[in-house]
Amino acid sequence: MAEPFPLAPSLxxxxxxxxxxxxxxxxxxxxxxVIVGGGFCGxxxxxxxxxxxxxxxxxxxxxxxxxxxxxxxxxxxxxLKHDPADLIARFGRERGERLARFAGGTTDxxxxxxxxxxxxxxxxxxxxxQGAHTEAGLDDLARRARQWADLGAPAxxxxxxxxDRLLGTDRxxxxxxxxxxxxxxxxxxxxxxxxxxxxxxxxxxxxxxxTALDRTGSGWTVTTAQGTRLAxxxxxxxxxxxxxxxxPGLAQTVIAANSFQVxxxxxxxxxxxxxxxxxxxxxxxxKLLLYFRLDHTGRLLMGGRGPFREPRSPQDWAHxxxxxxxxxxxxxxxxxxxxxxxxxxxxxxxxxxLHEPAPGLLIDIGCxxxxxxxxxxxxxxxxTYIATSDADSLPLPLTQLRxxxxxxxxxxxxxxxxxxxxxxxxxxx
Length: 429
Description:
InterPro entries: FAD-dep_OxRdtase, FAD/NAD-bd_sf. Residues 32-383 form the FAD dependent oxidoreductase domain. A hairpin with a 6-residue loop joins strand 14 and strand 15. By secondary structure, the protein is of the alpha+beta class. It has helices at residues 11-15, 40-51, 84-91, 93-104, 106-116, 135-150, 160-167, 186-200, 269-274, 318-327, 371-388, 410-425, and strands spanning 29-36, 56-59, 75-76, 123-124, 128-132, 155-158, 174-178, 182-184, 203-205, 210-216, 219-224, 229-237, 254-264, 281-284, 291-294, 300-305, 336-347, 353-358, 361-365. It is 32% helix and 25% strand. The chain has 12 helices and 19 strands. The protein has a single domain (11-410), classed as 3-Layer(bba) Sandwich (FAD/NAD(P)-binding domain), CATH 3.50.50.60.
């Protein structure tokens, strides 16, 4: 996909820890496992495979963290879009509860990896607050908090006064707090995963786009744009929102929506203390949700949906800049020094999908905007599956590829859905 509008680099690119050396693949050879995609899932899979003594090679089309892994909001949010009761109704009690516990523990995976490998990653774990902008949203949040608390999560409902105090805005009716959530510098985290994987024995090659996957006997031949080839028994494909035509029909199973973000200039101490004063991260109950946090440099980040197409000018971020002033009147007129966007893979059922369309080829796709924790934990599960061939080690059953109907028209109907959601969500009062 094309690069975003060439403005200043993203906030994460400006403030990230240095990247490890990941030169292009220049020599053909063999690998135990070839991983296509150098984001959170690919890097976590590589790290956990290497720790098991399995030699993986990661091939990334651009640079480590180029896609959504290096362009997200850095919020580490547990769970899935579906609440535990919904998962149990869908998968049955045993599998549904197991999936809920997996999803609830994804944030632990991130912070444990940062600590265990001594990663140079600014991070904070004070919890995630979801604010409700309607009365119906309040009912949903109370039910959600109760379900997670029943599973042992540090979850509780917030009344309006506490929500106002913890968020620094009076524009929500209430909310709930999940103490498992937190924040990271996502590009530094991607680079930290890469460093840990390299140290464990993985090989990682940037600027090595894969152009073909060919079945050869009982294994695979993976070919890059440079013409180099790797022979392997196993391929893991984890390209998510930047999935192209490498495997037929895969890109048609998701909507690769663009998530836009802006960051203010560093706030003064008094302004910083007036917004998210205890260091929480937040997103709300809107269908076109807003998500916001302070970063380690004292900037306020605001994220949300923008045009489905790639941005054409700074005006494509103007709606988020206006929202900052409406949510936080104390910041009305504040300057913004970073604007960027990244693609999120959204599936029809709002669940991650695992596919095995041919022997030795495993595909992970669909992060629904919660990729930091989800894909970190998914990589560990994939590594276990590859090492043991035990399908029960995967959090979800393997399913067939099912392209979305009328996918060639997805840009049109996604744009229409976004317009409808904006109307139904209502404005920021």
